[in-house]
Amino acid sequence: MKKKILIPTDFSKNAWNAIMYATELFKNIECRFYLLNAYSPTKHSRGELMTGTIETLAFEFEKNKSASGLSNVLEMLDFRGLNDKHEYQTISLQDDPLSAIQETIEKKDIELVVMGTKGASNYENKLFGSNTINVMENLRSSPILGIPLDVRLIHIKEIVFPTSFKTHYKRKELIHLVEIARLQNANICVLHVNDHPDLTIEQEENKLLLEECLEGASFSLHYIGGSNVNSSVKRFVESRGSDMVSFINRKHSFIDSVFSTPMVKELGMFSKVPLLVMHDTIH
């Protein structure tokens, strides 16, 4: 069975880079990539709508631009030479990015979303940038792999997985982390940030459960002192030159604040490192 991967695109360089990263990451896996573009009239054209005819023309313009853009992406992929293990389908939806992504995940039984972390600045309704944070925080039905503009996949040697050991884990929550680690023969660095390295009985039990969930992949345990989780993780990643950061975005989790408005600037740590955001399986 082919792995189903959704790649939203606003036709920016970052979106194209996300496609290139995904196709390289899964080059040896049978995959069906769904290339999605969400469109709607710009705020400017919407504000000038006076009659049904103008409204129709505005929507037709955006619809045609979306179809043309997706066609160009397919041509670019064909020019680069297609992988026999990969197939591509394009989807053009009149909707906001998050809703379009959610609808496609539901209809196509998507397993993973791969997207750029920043979109085309000249797009009024750009798909990424601030919308990336919105999607990563609110999309609970699929894990998301965010790819920065300048990141090229050569070889993933190390994936950092920050954890407090305060919540229990399920194997199905971590399946994509384990899969990527195995595909790349990478090591998963389980990173515990705390000024007090000693674990409670409950934390010890959760640590053992996590180790069971990571069976089949190479992993190691690391402890680092610090009261600010985000800056500590950033320091760890930069000092080691890690290739990816991954965590489970639970509601009310210790790292949940990374998506809150005051913490947006700290997402700068992911401007050079791909970010795999997984979710708990309790809905």
From TrEMBL:
Xref: InterPro entries: Rossmann-like_a/b/a_fold, UspA
Location of the UspA domain: 2-138
SUPFAM superfamilies: Adenine nucleotide alpha hydrolases-like (SSF52402)
Lineage: superkingdom: Bacteria
Similarity comment: Belongs to the universal stress protein A family.
Protein name per its UniProtKB record: Universal stress protein UspA
Species in which this protein is naturally found: Nonlabens arenilitoris
